[in-house]
Amino acid sequence: MTKKERYHFVLDYFQTHVPAAETELIYDNPYQLLVAVILSAQCTDKRVNITTPAIFASFPTVYDLAKTDFDTLFPYIKSISYPNNKTRHLINMAHMVVNEFNGEIPMTVDELVKLPGVGRKTANVITSVVDAQPNMAVDTHVFRVSARIGLTVNAKTPLAAEKQLITYIPKELVHIAHHWLILHGRYVCVARNPKCEICGLRPACKYYQAMLRKNKSNSIPYAG
Fold first, then answer.
1. Where is the HhH-GPD domain positioned along the sequence (predicted)?
2. How far apart are CA 174 and CA 172, in angstroms?
3. What is the model's pLDDT at position 1?
4. Which of 186, 63, 90, 105 is closest to 82 using CA atoms?
5. Are 136 and 155 within 8 A, CB to CB?
6. Residues within the annotated binding site?
7. What is the pLDDT of residues 122-137, one digit of tens each?
8. Which residues are annotated as a binding site for [4Fe-4S] cluster?
9. How far apart, in Å, do the first and last CA atoms of the chain sit?
10. Virtual CA dihedral for 108, 109, 112, 117, nearest 10 degrees?
11. Can you list the residues of the chain whose pLDDT is less than 50?
């Protein structure tokens, strides 16, 4: 199977079986999504969704968040991974949004990455989810799944994987392909013991084909 054929198979499968994939973070507006994504770094979406309602109730706008201090905000975030850093990131992010962007969450990657706590992955998430921009956020799931299937080859960094993926995925599908790959990695192509037996991508998956060859080789009786 050529790379073009592999991409076609994978995208066709997802379009058919998961047509409405979206983030599992709960939010109502770009401000809430930005807070949730910053908190989600090295933390589960489930834990973030448990934590954010109280934050949004007490700090409903970025202006409210900009007015608070570390000791006030920290108790809301202490159950999240790296709470000290994330508390500072959220407060400083809010200050910058208020002071440099007139209280509006910027909607370009170049502007977003200037905000404290926002890297390229987070900026890609915000712009693709809120504005359907053709930006591919590569987290651990996307990185792993893309390599296993064979959508990326010898991509040593998330940026390298991102560049390969957006080269072959049609522009209009990039924003949803991000969710397809994340959800597939979260529930099917898990890090340990991937659930190949229930995976519809087996015909196109390099990892699965390699496992078949390995098992076949191991089953050949010794004839020496």
1. 39-187
2. 6
3. 87
4. 90
5. no
6. 189, 196, 199, 205
7. 999 999 999 999 999 9
8. 189, 196, 199, 205
9. 35
10. 160
11. 220-224
Count of Cβ atoms closer than 10 Å to residue 37 Cβ = 24
- 0.85 cut: is pTM over it? yes
Q: Within 13 Å of residue 91, how many CA atoms lie on the same side as its CB?
A: 15
Place of tokens 């080269």: 167
Question: Which residue is associated with the tokens 């507006």?
Answer: 29
| Cα separation, 214 vs 104, whole angstroms | 54
Which residues are part of the catalytic machinery? 121, 139
Angle at 57 between CA 99 and CA 122, to 5 degrees: 55
- On whether the CB atoms of residues 159 and 126 are closer than 8 A, the answer is no
Q: What share of the chain is helix, strand, coil (3-state, %, to 5)?
A: 65, 0, 35
* Residue that is written with structure tokens 């037996």 in the block: 197
Which domains are present in the chain?
3-21+136-215 (1.10.1670.10), 30-131 (1.10.340.30)
Q: Centre a 10 Å sphere on the Cβ of residue 173 and count the other Cβ atoms it contains.
A: 14
